[in-house]
Amino acid sequence: MGFNLSVFSQGNFELQNGIRDKIHFKLVNNLIVIPVTINGVSLSFLLDTGVSKPIIFNFFNLQEELSIHETETILIQGLGNDEPIEALRSSNNTVIIGEAVSLNQDLFAIIDASINFVPSLGIPIHGIIGYDLFKDFVIEINYSRKFIKLYNPHLYDSKLSKKWRKLDLKFYNKKPIIEASVTVNNQVVPVNLLIDTGGSDALWLFEDSVQSLSIPTNTFDDFLGKGLSGTIFGKRTVVESFRLKDYQLNKVNVAFPDTASIQKAKINTLRNGSLMGDVLHRFNWVFDYKSQWVAFKKNKFFNPPFNYNKSGVVLQYAGVRLVKTRTRIPVKTVHSSTETSNQSSNTINFTSTYKFEVVPELIISDIRPHSPSDKAGLEIGDVVLSINNQNLSSLTLQKAIDQFYGADGKQIKMTIERGGIVLKYQFRLRDLLHKKSTN
Description:
This protein is mostly beta strands. It has seven helices and 29 strands. The strands form four sheets. It has a six-stranded mixed barrel. It has a six-stranded antiparallel sheet with strand order 2-12-11-22-23-13, with no helix packed on it. The protein has a six-stranded mixed β-barrel with strand order 15-16-21-17-20-19. The longest helix has 8 residues. It is globular, with a radius of gyration of 26 Å.
């Protein structure tokens, strides 16, 4: 492997060069995707401050390659209303992230093959990692330039410029909690929020009458996502403002998860919700778990307004499909001159050529009742062929979803396939939160 393994402590990450490392990441739907090598196999993981141990998905597809042994079966309870899920706990794994190496690393492999992030993100995601990496380094996350830096905590210079703000961190079950405030129903409410880089929303708040965290009247019921223990539903709304030290964001989208979706998770009674990617990516961050502080400064993403899916359609990636496309090519035919004319004539004809290409297959996995897409007649299971005349050869899952985040009243045209029949639908996006819609 090109270095002396004996210098590394078992169970902890250490840098090969002993000083620092820079790792570029992909930013997909406000989520950080980093390259990770486990037992010599190259994988892609979400960097998730909301998890305490590394978790692998699609385990049985990777079992032989990863050479994972020494396992025991355990139960894991996550967000959602279902029962705990089975996982295999494995020891003695070698994990490499950039120049950082951990020997004898514990991993938790999810047995249920249906639990993975590929359908919702459209790119391969093999697992998630959080605390085990953050505990051993000072970590800088630069959302604007899409890289993280790992610093040896003993050599890190903690002097930051005046642009940075600094707050203490608290920890619950190895997860970082930060103090902030929200203005709800014209009342400023202090909140303790889990910093969750593994969530793509802006904020989740837990309704609590004691804390004056009541749900505003202008809401709608929505699908919020899937946790390890099932589907999460709740209400979407907007709070007047969110404040982090002296930085303030206005008209912030917020979700209040249903009590049933979070009651079985181990939630600290002092925790009021989660601070997620749609807010986090508006700042650059430095985390120091050992000294229990976090620093942040706003970046180029700070000012754009908050948005959300106004269509009611939830799309997911369902593999690939082979499609046949037709292209018409003009062919010029030159006719020779006649005895009575010295001029030749030209005729333009068209010939058709066909090609086959592999494109992503996107399906409708959920539709919000009474939403524009529901009223138009779209159904769960419909296969998407095009959105606003863009076919799938030019659309990634993320680009397709972005169509639904447009302005109030924007027209959406969708061509879908249902039971082998091609159908066309159209509707207009409707904003239920930021202003009263006339559509």
